[in-house]
């Protein structure tokens, strides 16, 4: 997969940079504005953020600019391409959910899905692991 195929970048070690500061840094480095050029999703449980670009940019060049940016280095953050995956975790599922329902839901093209290879339910934590036949059905 080429870098141009993925419009998302993962930022690790974000705990020292506030969400607003991160957005301003990304605007400065990319030349785009948040909500128009890209969105940022924070995942505090694993100390990362994911920026998804809606405007076309050279992702490899952007990641290189991040690694060279003074403030980015001061915060000791890293940036890397978000790799494709065939497996996702669905959380906060209702108690009554079935593997059949999840299979049909995640195979639905209206939901951005694709062919599902496997669904593992974890009722004790109201979650499931969904494995797709290929990485295109995980949006």
TrEMBL record:
Gene3D superfamilies: 3.30.70.330. It comes from the Eukaryota. It holds the Pfam family RRM_PARP14_2. Residues 5-83 form the PARP14 second RRM domain. This is PAR14 polymerase. It comes from Anthoscopus minutus.
